Amino acid sequence: MIRVAIDGPGGTGKSTIAKAVAARFGLEYIDTGAMYRSIALKTIREGISPADESAIAEMLGTTTIDFDSGCVFLDGEDVGSLIRTNEVSMAASNVSRHACVRAKVDAVSKHLAATKSVVMEGRDIGTAVIPDAEVKIFMTAAPEIRAQRRYDQLIKAGKEADYDEIFREIQQRDYQDSHRELNPLRQADDAVYLDTSDLTIEQNIDAIADIINEKNT
Ligand code: DC
């Protein structure tokens, strides 16, 4: 069993990198942010305010979240293509502060990490979900660089993008994710710090592969 925990703020390219690393080492890729995003999507669909904890708790009583073969399922529906909007990003950050939401995602994540070799990415994997992970990485990049990458991604996909708005949202989400009470984003004491500001995707994947190989020898 090897469990690789990758944490870091939004927009660092964690998903792309974690997915590629998982493929290279034949490990299961688990995106915990996708599960928070799915819960956020359901609150939007049902018109529930992200601040209304009791309504969210009630909603979760009849909600199933699964993560399988790189895909997230909300009540059995593959919602992967619906959860990458700015609206869902911010709603995910907002709902993720509630204990009932964290408990729901934690239960699924911990079960997966207990049964498989995984690359799991999120905000609190090395600190709370798999505190005894064999490999822990804290991946970050300057907010200006993350905003620029997101902007380029949207433009390339033929979508509209406003750099200043993206930058503001990144800063707001960084603040919320690292200042909430329950398991906020922070580097685990035993995590390797990786600043990806000046790395290409390939260099980033290689850097993580080196860390895994080092820990494994
Ligand atoms: O990694 P992401 O951008 O898809 O995550 C979306 C939101 O979900 C993020 O802003 C905060 C929350 N999240 C969390 O609280 N804990 C995690 N382990 C992963 C995500």
Question: Helix tally?
Answer: 9
CATH arch. level architecture = 3-Layer(aba) Sandwich
Could you name the ranges where pLDDT drops below 50 across 5 or more consecutive residues? none
Number of strands: 8
Q: What is the helical fraction, as a range of percent?
A: 40-55%
Cα-based radius of gyration, to the nearest Å: 17 Å
Largest sheet: 5 strands, parallel
The best one-word shape is globular
**Arrangement of strands in the largest sheet:** 2-6-1-7-8
> What is the domain total for the residues?
1
Question: How would you classify the helix and strand content by structural class?
Answer: alpha/beta
CATH topology title: Rossmann fold
Question: What labels would you give this structure?
Answer:
217 residues, alpha/beta, Rossmann fold, 5-stranded parallel β-sheet, 3-stranded antiparallel β-sheet, 8 strands, 52% helix, globular, binds 2'-deoxycytidine-5'-monophosphate
